[in-house]
Design a protein that fits this description.
Layout lengths: L11 H12 L4 H8 L3 H9 L1 H8 L15 H16 L6 H15 L7 H10 L16 H18 L5 E10 L7 H4 L13 E9 L9 E4 L16 E4 L7 H18 L3 E5 L14 E5 L5 H4 L6 H23 L7 H14 L2 H10 L19 H12 L15 H9 L12 H15 L16 H17 L4 H21 L16
Parallel strand pairs: 1-5, 3-4, 5-6
Antiparallel strand pairs: 1-2, 2-3
Helix pairs in contact: 1-4, 5-6, 5-17, 12-13, 18-19
Length: 519
Amino acid sequence: MGDKQKRQSFTLQVKCDIIRELIGGKKQVDVCREKSLSKSTVATIWKNRDELLKAFESINVKVKKMRKSVHDEVDRALLIWFSQQRRNNVTISGAILRTKAEEFGKKVQDNFVCSEGWVERWKARHNICSGKILGEASDVNTEVVDNWISTVWPTIKEEYSENDVFNADETGLFFKLTPDKTLKFRGEKCVGGKLSKERITVLVCANMSGTEKRKLLVIGKSQNPRCFKNVRSLPVDYRANSKAWMTSELFIEHVRKWDEELKRKKRKIVLLIDNCPAHPKIQQLQFIKLVFMPPNTSSILQPMDQGIIRTLKTYYRHSLLIRQVQNIDSGKAVTVSVLDAINLIHKSWQKISRQTIKNCYKHAGFYSPSTDEEYDSDDDLPLHTWLINQQRTTTPGTSTSGNHGVAIEDNVVDEFVTVDDCVITSEFLTDDEIMSAVIEEYEDNNSDTEDEDSTEDATVTNASAVQCLREIRKFLQSRGASQNLFNNLVELETFVDNICANNAEVQKRITDYFNLTTT
């Protein structure tokens, strides 16, 4: 009887390296040959890639098995609490960890006792070791901004071109908001509950030259909204959690995915971000250099906050008002689903000009004052002025109090524009909120429903799609559309034709087309 082959164990580091090679385009058979692994071993690692990559940041990369704690809820809650304290530069001892773990334990079961051994195993699972927690001072002023621009920024500028300097920031958006609902939201804190169903969080990112606007990341409350039924692709990346806000896990996942994308292109970039609690330092990025701006400087130093996000929201609300007018004219109810919001925010993002993005970087100090750039005139058009022009266009001869149901007073317009400027996109959680988030996470992952008024059926048949495109072609022809629009329409028609051809019912004989049913 031959010797039994010894079972191999691999560290999390090794498994993630294998996954990244496969993501980069290497074939499984080549990985098996190079590392002397069986096909089933590599296939299993690839199958569990999402869980392994997610665990990479929080679990000791030298461990060979991802063993869960017997008290998993306490384990996860303590990790969230500890991460928050680290970001706040609080020194945590082993005794403090034990006390905090027992507090969380009492919230889920009365007989949990935290021993020193449990704490040590918890630290090993999450790669936590003793040492002084270092952090930046929390008190800053304009001198800090000037110093960063004069000392840090020049070194970055020397290493990266304008095309490879990116800034990203989150913003909250009341996606169902119409002018008549503005006053209800004004001044309310959107953390959880009812208002969280009315909002999404959007991660906005673009490069310094304005030549590249990254695909938006939209974070909603429901993992599988009803309006996503039969939807196989989205123009944005979509994720969800119970509060519809950015978390460190989502940020890590998003950045690592981008890093793999850059690896395939062999391109290196720098990503400028603020010190938000949801933006942790990410180890072993190969093609993205994370640069954290000084604390409390976003309103001055962050390009996204210099007008890009405001312009995005203004365009979004332009679209909502147009939709409201169209629905009122057709006698339909004005409803907005998460899918509607995704389509509208994507459309709004595409409208923002390169010139406006570049100018926002200039206002943040990344260009010299002599740089001759101005806002795009359409991007910088105030919402109230746009609304007046829109009403005059849609209803000639009428005043701003026209009959389309969207005429609103100046003060309401101001609130309509700024109502969600301070919506929470991430937060330090209380102990109760931490436990709720841990418990709700399991429920959210299995959730497939959306709030009651999102009942739109996303199903569209092949025949309906073909007919719609025919109508669009007639519309463009009657309006004198440009050649570029017709070229884009041909691309859409070709895409739909291919789908129809692949999904068509099998017709084996030409006579099948002439079969008649008699009764």
